[in-house]
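ok so heres the complex, two chains, lmk if somethin looks off
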Amino acid sequence: MKDKVMRITISNSVIQLFSVSSVLFWMNINHGAEHTIWTGRYLPAAINVEQIGQYSLDGNSIASYPIWGYSLLALLADKIFGCYEAVLVFQYLLFVLSLIIVCKRFYRSETEVILTEKLLFFGCVIFFSMVLSVKWPDAILSFLLFITVVFSLDKKYTAGAVCLSLAYNFRPEALIFLMVYLIYLFFVIRVKTKLRLVVVSLVFISPWSIYQYTHTDRLLLGSSNTPAVIYITLGQLPGNKWNRVHNDRSATEYVRSRGVDDPMGYRWRFDTEKRSR
Amino acid sequence: MIQWGIDGGSILRKEVADNIRDYPIEFVKKIAYNMIKTVFSGFYVTEIANVTNDETLRNSSKSELIRRYMSGNYEHSVDELIRVVLLGGGIYFSIYALLSSCCI
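and the predicted structre for the whole thing:
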């Protein structure tokens, strides 16, 4: 009887949570975080992939920043739903999937749920819904991090490695997560499927580097803006001794003073420049 | 011979390496500053600048934003505050705090 009552209570809570977090999700879809990158980078890249079949921002040269995962997802959204912004539909589905997974895993045999646990759980879910409701690749990365943890709890380490490798195509720093994950599996868990883990990781990581190399003759691991970001973030410390300021222009001016045009990428025109090199 | 990365990237990386070598303590201070700022304010707190077209708000600090909310002097204040608070915390951004401090 108690179980039945508890299950009904939990069920009601989950429905309420689902409703509240869904409303917050759709209220937050116009969030401005990285909006300029969505309009100025991800969207043009998706359009160019569709129209000229090249990953390019300006239609003339190969883009080395940002990494392509989110643009390709937006393109897929356009193919299925008819608009690029429908990438949010994917993100909402990922959020719903996350909620189902969490509820099934943690509420299945639960008989007592204290208020603090419930509040913590509610807070995490709502926060997660907000992260997934913004048009940015961090949404996909956060879902893939979450699902990696779920797979790892089930000892499905290969699936976890696939998720982190896939995440690299959305945010390059996922490579750090993957390396830490593999080191953990190899030296702490001591899995016996080392080769398989390395191979599946490479399968999902290598396409970006191969694409960049075949089009520009240069190997690139991750997106090309990282050094510029490292450079300008030294300027985040107020009154720093390097006299650095935290804006893109400072990096641009620095490399231009040394004869290089763009600190964020290479201006590599399709085919013509490569042939004339 | 395979060429790695971009020309501007190697120039900037070298400069940063020199900077850190010249002032290592300053770099540690930078890491600590970033971590504290990120954990308590959120990785994308500076992105508030992009949320609104309100020019004054673009140049406002988070405390100014909250003050405006408290005084009811901003029409989208509740909306903004929800965004700031919800995007300002959580484990996800704590991980980012570590990453941004050490790597980015």
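quick notes: The radius of gyration of chain A is 22 Å. thats all i got rn
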